């Protein structure tokens, strides 16, 4: 017991020295409960009353004096198999350790004295290696995350050397437990100014002001001319008070022609000039496209069209297409609705776009062999092609018929409805057309 008191005194002295140098950190204390496996040294198994393997449980209290140093006391209750005894022996172990924590709490090493009382009272020296695993870093605990950050899993491997003369040998122990960290204090946090505009976050009503931007007392960008547009976006920072401005902070009608800047295609019209709906002189730009009449090659351009440098509408190419579906009876290539309006629509479409070609796809249902279905689908495609040529006057060279058999089923179910849907013709024809680009 005397040796244990000596170790405690040394630990207290070290802690006092470290505390004088560093302030305690947050969660610098912990309590833990653990279970332990005890393994005896094989070299002494022939000795009477030799302590053999066993188990135990206990608790510890520890504290860190700095980022590196700490100390703890522990109490364990053991159930050990004693060589030569009829029953296991119960006992307890009381001890203290000094701990050194490696950088970033990777591991810690420890050493100390343990007073173990089972069959006799023995003083043991202990050394070992352990780790506190942060539970909160590995688990998503939702609203309980703050508690999880304080909970740690303790793992530890220790070696014990009996200091009394009647027993030699080194014994091993492995323990696993759960610790809860608490206590300590953190340095008072400095008031934050996240956007570095000189206004603290607690008073900043515009918390994400760009760096270098001048702000007012509540952290918002200055608007020196009071027109409602902040200086950073204001292209006219000296607008007279009361002036109606646009989104750039400039007078809403710079040339005073009565047409707002955002739709005025002639923003510098001379004072007194009679203008049209787009702000351009009626005398100089009759169709109001922004191109003066003397250079305008398209003098009647619609107001909605965007124009080029010669005043003519700008066009872009758009794709237009038409799809037709034709259904057939089972094992048939006869078109039952040859007068259907959809065939006339195909003919009209191809007349409207004479440079187009059409692809007629024939498809069959799943029943039957692959070769038969391929042949049948080709016959169906040929039937539609013949109809469009003979009845609707489409030139043969503009029509291509392809049979796909059962390779492109719409419905893979083996039902009458699925088979009917799969027996079909699809006519695909597309063309490009010019459309006006809008202003």
UniProtKB/TrEMBL annotation:
Output the InterPro entries linked to this UniProt entry: Bact_OuterMem_StrucFunc (IPR050330), Beta-barrel_OMP (IPR027385), OMP/PagP_B-barrel (IPR011250), OMP_bac (IPR006664), OmpA-like (IPR006665), OmpA-like_sf (IPR036737), Thrombospondin_3-like_rpt (IPR003367), TSP_type-3_rpt (IPR028974)
**This protein's record includes keyword Manganese:** no
Question: In this record, what's one Pfam family?
Answer: OmpA
- What membrane topology is given? Multi-pass membrane protein
Q: Name one GO cellular component term.
A: cell outer membrane
Q: Which domain of life is it from?
A: Bacteria
Q: Which GO terms describe its molecular function?
A: calcium ion binding; porin activity
Entry keyword set: Cell outer membrane, Ion transport, Membrane, Porin, Signal, Transmembrane, Transmembrane beta strand, Transport
Q: Biological process GO annotation list? A: cell adhesion; monoatomic ion transport
Name-wise, this protein is OmpA-OmpF porin, OOP family
Q: Which organism is it from?
A: Paraglaciecola arctica BSs20135
The opening ranks of the lineage are:
Bacteria, Pseudomonadati, Pseudomonadota, Gammaproteobacteria, Alteromonadales
